[in-house]
Amino acid sequence: MTQKYWTGAEAAIIAAEAAATALVTGLPEYRDGQEVAPEARVTARWAEPRETATPGTFAIPAYPGMDVPEGCAEADGVSLPKVMEDELG
Questions:
Q1: How sure is the predictor about 16, in pLDDT bands with cuts at 50, 70 and 90?
Q2: Which of 29, 71, 77, 84 has the fewest CB atoms in 10 Å of its CB?
Q3: What gap in Å lies between CA 84 and CA 51, rounded to an integer?
């Protein structure tokens, strides 16, 4: 399955990331089969918005099952700036 991304203006992607984070951080986390207390959870956010190779366009991985947020478009992949590709390997 291809990783889907949401792309758009920085403000739209920041809002989309905040909505996905609200879903992720509201889910229980488990370690060794035991639910972790909310204050001990390590999930703090869904993703860090990154600017794509297209200046002014940002992207995050799409949250599975969530509708495409307002102001965003869905893409099958994104191109990162050359510097970012080098940093990420």
A1: very high
A2: 77
A3: 9
